[in-house]
Design brief:
This protein is an alpha+beta fold. It has three domains: about 70 residues, Uridine Diphospho-n-acetylenolpyruvylglucosamine Reductase, domain 2 (2-Layer Sandwich); about 150 residues, 2-Layer Sandwich (Uridine Diphospho-n-acetylenolpyruvylglucosamine Reductase, domain 3), CATH 3.30.465; about 100 residues, UDP-N-acetylenolpyruvoylglucosamine reductase, C-terminal domain (Uridine Diphospho-n-acetylenolpyruvylglucosamine Reductase, domain 1). The strands form six sheets. A five-stranded antiparallel sheet has the order 6-7-12-10-11, with no helix packed on it. The longest helix has 19 residues. It starts with a strand and ends with a strand. Bound molecules: flavin-adenine dinucleotide.
Length: about 350
Amino acid sequence: MRVVEHAPLQSFNTFHVAANARYLVTLESPDELTAFLADSRFSGLPLFVLGGGSNLLLTGDFAGVMLCPRFMGREVLSQEVERVRLRACAGESWDGFVDWAVAQGFAGLENLSCIPGHVGAAPVQNIGAYGVELQDVVERVEALDLSTGAAVSFTRDDCQFAYRDSVFKRNPGRYLITAVVFSLAGKFAPRLDYPGVPAALAAQQDEGPLSPARVRQAICAVRYGKLPDPAVLGNAGSFFKNPLVSQSLADSLKGEYASMPVYPAAAGLAKIPAAWLIEQCGFKGYRAGDAGVHEKHALVLVNYGQATGAELWALAEKIRLAVRQRFGVELEPEPNRL
Ligand SMILES: Cc1cc2nc3c(=O)[nH]c(=O)nc-3n(C[C@H](O)[C@H](O)[C@H](O)COP(=O)(O)OP(=O)(O)OC[C@H]3O[C@@H](n4cnc5c(N)ncnc54)[C@H](O)[C@@H]3O)c2cc1C
């Protein structure tokens, strides 16, 4: 266990916002949790489990413990014609894991390529992209219950996955995910029905048969073309979830705004792209000091340099208010705010 007191967090969040944590504690193995829970320095302090900090907005210093699991390792548990089972530890890079799986020809993860962050965070908001969600490929999540220190195993049903949501997201600070077990169909069933993907595939030099590797390459090309690289421009990806509204509200808005995209969602609800709503309110490319909305993607808030977390949050609130006033739709932020 490594402990840093009054730790600077600027390099631990992809917004690159400056803030400190009272303690930054790194665990190299799940066994170290016992020592952590017994350490009186940390008792009674608020606790936040930190992965790669790519879904996090720090609006001030954190007067608690940032607990960083750095458990490493990934393996093929079983490989049969019908099914492949993989296991990856929480501290592995998510995209490094996807790359490793795809390089071996395993299918099912390729649409989730190039999402920043660690494996341990992926179940928390049920990461999703290009028509695939984590819940489509998860068999089991291994975790430690931080209230007791006991090891717990969650089946996919136990995880209560929903759009950008799970039992882990709804109980912040309760569970420390240690590893994820994946169950992939042995047969490659490409999902290409997403704008930009067929064109990116067609633009590839490689004219060999369609493979998970080629789909991964296409997805990465589409993503790099429209999303800013956090290493260059601080951001946390999509800042708002796509709102789910009643069908009657969607119908009445569609009557007023014929060009508004609407997609069917679960439980008879309708999904409206948050980016469209934000763009209609004139925020695409908007900038207030160093806090701004990306010029190519209205859903991505960016830190042009020295923006504070509070400034970025104020901008998010301004956008929410504008969308609420114009459309009567409530936008919900996706990143965790601390
Ligand atoms: C450029 C960019 C593009 C993105 N694109 C997408 C996308 O397409 N789809 C998508 O879904 N997301 C996307 N994201 C958001 C983000 O990458 C994901 O949510 C990712 O899973 C966060 O991983 P992290 O390790 O950085 O988590 P963090 O930001 O460190 O933490 C996120 C949450 O997970 C919890 N957590 C982290 N590790 C653990 C653990 N081991 N145990 C328990 N809880 C834990 C934290 O407490 C927090 O609640 C994007 C972000 C960026 C910057």
